[in-house]
Amino acid sequence: GAGVSQSPRYKVAKRGQDVALRCDPISGHVSLFWYQQALGQGPEFLTYFQNEAQLDKSGLPSDRFFAERPEGSVSTLKIQRTQQEDSAVYLCASSLDPGSYEQYFGPGTRLTVT
Amino acid sequence: GESVGLHLPTLSVQEGDNSIINCAYSNSASDYFIWYKQESGKGPQFIIDIRSNMDKRQGQRVTVLLNKTVKHLSLQIAATQPGDSAVYFCAETPNTGFQKLVFGTGTRLLVSP
């Protein structure tokens, strides 16, 4: 079927605003990851879901970042009270099961905080 | 599309040349090492992987070499084509029970026709 999709592709937020970024993983994929990619850098792990359970959120940079995957499919990454340092590309990836290391990435959401 | 990175190490080659992209990794306990290709405005795309108990693996036009002694990984691309122009990242999976990826510093490959 279709690959991983993310929306919106671009988001401009004023400092202090809340944003919500959506990820639609490949159907049937158990594992879902969020990564943050700053300009000129490799992606950095934020959080991991196995179905609806968030098993690792060690990469979330602050308590302003919150992610959910309530039905084990679509996931939302929410950032409250955005700051300029939150400007980055947010990538979502899914994989078939926890043991699979081949992750399929979406195109990312480019967040710019002004 | 937008640029993935503006200040990455860059490798410039002519079409038809062979390219070698290098990467140093940090965790000797990692299970798998993976190369990803990222084109401007897109997410990373899986190219090839190698398990930690191997030292070489070949794919179509690509070969990955793993040197665990010096924690070094390389990606060789044969007969490089303009469509290979992208940023290349190595990644490792630190054996956390699920396959979280830890990415290295990328290299921009520029292929001139």
Q: Can you put this structure into words, describing what you see?
A:
The complex is a heterodimer of chains A (114) and B (113). By secondary structure, chain A is mostly beta strands. Chain A has strands at 5-7, 10-13, 19-24, 31-37, 44-50, 53-56, 65-68, 75-79, 88-95, 104-105, 109-113. In chain A, strands 2, 4, 5, 6, 9, 10 and 11 form a seven-stranded mixed β-sheet that branches. In chain A, a hairpin with an 8-residue loop joins strand 9 (88-95) and strand 10. With 113 residues, chain B is mainly beta. Chain B is built from no helices and ten strands. The radius of gyration of chain B is 14 Å and the shape is globular. The relative contact order of chain B is 0.34. Residues 1-6 of chain B have low confidence and may be disordered. The interface between A and B is medium-sized, with 31 and 31 residues.
Low-confidence stretches of chain A: none
Interface with most residues: A-B, 31 and 31 residues
Mean pLDDT of chain B: 89
Structural class of chain A: mainly beta
Please state the overall shape of chain A, judged from the principal axes of the Cα atoms.
Answer: globular
Q: What is the alpha-carbon Rg of chain A in Å?
A: 13 Å
Shape of chain B: globular
Tell me the major beta sheet of chain A.
7 strands, mixed
Helix content of chain A: under 10%
Strand content of chain A: over 45%
Tell me the total number of β-strands of chain A: 11
Give the number of helices of chain B: 0
User: How is the biggest beta sheet of chain B arranged?
Assistant: 6 strands, mixed
* Ends distance of chain B: 21 Å
